[in-house]
Design brief:
It is built from 29 helices and 15 strands. The protein is α/β, with parallel strands linked by helices and 741 residues long. Strands 3-4-5-6-7-8-9-10-11 form a nine-stranded mixed beta sheet. The chain is globular. The two termini are 46 Å apart. It binds iron/sulfur cluster.
């Protein structure tokens, strides 16, 4: 490694890098002096430290934060803009020379030593640092010197940003989508007429006129089965249904994707949300949807070699997973925390209503564990027995109280399969409750109090929300409530305000009427990260009866490079946009009760928005779902590569319980797959004014927000056992907490 580093040190920097360096030194004479006087990199490091440290110690809170003696949100919020820069520079120095495996580059070594790179550039014109690196340094030292101030937006600015984004409820958008539907249906009718498509359920009688066929097809459009059967599975059909509007470069990429075996599955309803021409009144509004459907070059290049992001999903028989839990050896249960585990059924729930290009489970699609072979995903005879066995895991676990059924997509399961799963959950919860009667206080097990279904179908295919489904959900809620299950959540995933269509809104209304609370998890892709986009989505969802739950940074490595919005932008969004939705403390108890009155969700949300005068309820947390550690946005920027890609060190989210096995867990290093410059360039390419994002450079520290009380578990009236079951490591019960939230 030593010689490799030496080789890199000899690389000459480019003309552009030289120009940026010159600017850096002109703006910071003290830095130039340190660099010119240092005889080697060590002296450079000491010189910069001696210059910066006194600036930090002027603010004792910031100094303690840097030394890890002050933690948490309150300490974080006391940091000044300059403190962020000073802490980052000192962290760079403390971590100088560290090497990291860069999983974006299949494990190539990344070395961070920015001070050395500047020193080499100043004295020898070498070090190989790229312009993106120097741009980042320029901004960093401006922040330190006070030349780069942060202008926080006011509410008018936020309003203006939000007003740029149309929703799917805008009458002009509704009309455009109707035109799209007509175009798509006419092509499908034509294909049926020509015999290109044959379907036992969806066909026309010979005697029908073209008009009658169209009216019949409009009826089909209301059925989810139609959309699943007629989902697009090839690039050519995709283009045809989009009025041949895709350009040849995109088509070439999509064909490559097809040849590589990346599944295509775009149902006609979802396809109708895409514009074939950019409407003047909603320029760029459908991009977050479009980027979910059209695969990126990076995804195509990486497919086949995608590495699993979730370490805790790797389950070996008899061995604890990365979070320390022992699991049944099948791949049906995933677990990270003490209170909750995920159940993935062997049913149609292994599919989705579409394939999101930045899917967190792309690795599972790659290995065929999740797929769109809908005919083959019918539950097998043995599933009933297996389901019971899997649920025994929940029944016999001391701390599990929350089950999340997902997939794929939980609502892709048929009504019959879903009803069966819910019934078995009810029976399991009842047995667990009864078994507790015999246990004394202090030895009792957690009883089931929350059931969740993970589904993106409210966005992908709202036609799935039928009266029959609503009846199943309502019946289950009624029955399960009588044995103490209190929280019934449908965890959905809307990505864009443009997905909130009249059909989606009606689906949400129906789900709420069954007494289930709908919460949203947004994935913060580049298009979704544009100023005001997430805020607008929060607003339209709130107004439709949905609560916001998480805003997730894009997971994964190079395959998701295109859609990845940097974590600095996630912090900026949290501090500068979502902050306007902060619910005053006095209303926290009001909101806590919302899930118990889910039937009145829309009215309750609207009332609270009116009383508080908030544009939306900022009940979601911006986080990254980390490999092995879970959700967190608690990080420090401890390094940067020659290419300007930042290296972040994440910590556990200290606001929630973790497996005792995680207490001593190392911090997690994430090397971002793009530099801030590249991200801003991408925003510019999609029409954004990068001046609006200027403060992004400075958000080098993150701190996970406190969870909204909405999502707290209700307390038990008895005392739980401090013992853990299904834990593959030994723990001293006296140091572990039995009560969890
Ligand atoms: S719905 Fe969820 S699981 Fe399915 S493809 Fe999209 S992100 Fe992945």
């Amino acid at each position: 490694m030593q010689s490799f580093t030496h080789e890199l040190d000899k690389i000459a920097i480019t003309v552009k890098s030289h120009m940026l360096l010159k600017e850096l030194l002109r703006e910071n004479p003290e830095l130039e002096e340190v660099m010119r006087n240092a005889r080697n990199e060590t002296e450079a490091l000491i010189g910069v430290r001696n210059w910066v440290m006194p600036m930090l110690t002027q603010n004792q809170n910031a100094y303690k934060f840097y030394k890890n003696e002050a933690h948490g949100r309150a300490a974080f919020e006391k940091l000044s803009w300059k403190d962020f820069a000073a802490i980052r520079i000192l962290d760079y120095i403390d971590n100088a020379g560290r090497q990291f495996d860069d999983l974006n580059l299949h494990g190539e070594k990344a070395i961070s030593n920015p001070v050395k790179l500047i020193w080499l550039a100043v004295n020898f014109g070498t070090g190989g640092a790229k312009p993106y690196f120097f741009k980042d340094m320029l901004q960093l030292f401006r922040q330190l010197s006070g030349n780069g101030q942060r202008d926080l937006p006011d509410s008018n600015q936020l309003e203006q940003w939000m007003s740029r984004w149309s929703t799917g409820l805008d009458p002009r958008i509704v009309k455009l989508r109707e035109e799209n539907r007509e175009r798509i249906l006419k092509i499908i009718i034509d294909k049926i007429d020509r015999g290109d498509i044959k379907d036992a359920k969806f066909f026309f009688k010979d005697s029908m006129s073209q008009e009658q066929k169209y009216l019949e097809a409009l009826e089909w459009w209301k059925s989810s089965l139609f959309h699943l059967r007629f989902a697009v599975r090839s690039p050519d059909l995709l283009n045809e249904l989009l009025g041949n509007s895709l350009d040849p470069d995109t088509m070439k990429l999509l064909k490559e994707a097809d040849e590589l075996g990346i599944p295509f599955f775009v149902n006609p309803y979802y396809l109708s949300l895409l514009h074939v021409r950019v409407p003047y009144f909603a320029i760029g509004a459908d991009l977050a949807i479009r980027h979910y459907v059209i695969y990126s070059k990076q995804l195509i290049e990486e497919y086949g070699n995608i590495v699993a992001w979730e370490k805790e999903d790797i389950v070996k028989p008899g061995k604890p997973n990365a979070a320390g839990w022992l699991l049944p050896s099948d791949h049906n249960i995933h677990r990270r925390y003490p209170e909750v585990a995920i159940l993935i059924p062997d049913t149609m729930g292994r599919a989705c209503g579409g394939l999101c290009s930045s899917c967190q489970r792309m690795y599972d699609f790659q290995r065929g564990n999740l797929n769109f072979k809908l005919d083959k995903l019918q539950p097998k005879e043995s599933w009933d027995e297996k389901l019971q066995r899997l649920l025994t895991y929940f029944e016999e676990d001391a701390h599990l109280r929350d089950i999340l059924i997902t997939g794929g997509d939980a609502l892709m399961s048929s009504d019959k399969s879903l009803e069966k799963i819910l019934e078995e959950i009810y029976q399991m919860a009842l047995r667990k409750k009864k078994a507790n009667e015999k246990r004394p206080d202090g030895e009792k097990y957690a009883e089931m109090i929350r059931v969740r279904l993970g589904s993106r179908l409210p966005a992908y295919l709202p036609q799935r929300i039928t009266p029959e489904l609503v009846a199943i959900l309502g019946k289950f809620k009624e029955k399960a409530s009588s044995i103490g299950i209190r929280q019934f959540f449908i965890q959905t995933h809307f990505e864009s305000p443009m997905e909130v269509t009249p059909d989606a809104k009606e689906g949400i209304r129906k789900l709420n009427s069954s007494g289930w609370t709908i919460t949203n998890q947004l994935v913060f892709t580049t298009a979704a990260s544009r100023r005001g986009h997430s805020a607008k989505l929060r607003k339209v969802l709130n107004e439709s009866g949905v609560l916001n739950y998480y805003t997730f940074s894009v997971k994964g490595y190079m395959e998701n490079n295109f859609n990845f919005a940097t974590n600095e932008r996630a912090v900026q969004e949290q501090m500068e946009e979502k902050a306007f939705g902060k619910i005053p403390d006095k209303y926290q108890d009001v909101i806590r009760n919302f899930p118990e009155e889910a039937e009145n969700m829309t009215e309750n949300i609207r009332d609270l928005m009116k009383k508080t005068q908030l544009p939306f309820l900022g009940t979601d947390r911006n986080v990254l779902n980390l490999p092995g550690v879970g959700k967190s946005l608690t990080f420090r920027t401890i390094g940067i590569t020659r290419y300007g890609r930042r290296i972040l060190e994440f910590e556990l989210d200290h606001t929630r319980n973790h497996s005792p096995a995680m207490e001593d867990m190392d911090k997690v290093i994430i090397i971002e797959s793009k530099s801030i410059s590249e991200y801003l360039q991408q925003l510019e390419d999609i029409g954004e004014d990068t001046g609006d994002y200027e403060s992004i450079w400075g958000y080098s520290i993150g701190e996970t927000e406190q969870r909204s009380p909405l999502y707290d578990y209700v307390d038990y009236e008895f005392e739980l056992t401090p013992e853990y079951s299904n834990l593959g490591v030994s723990v001293d019960p006296s140091t572990s907490s039995g009560q969890a939230n």
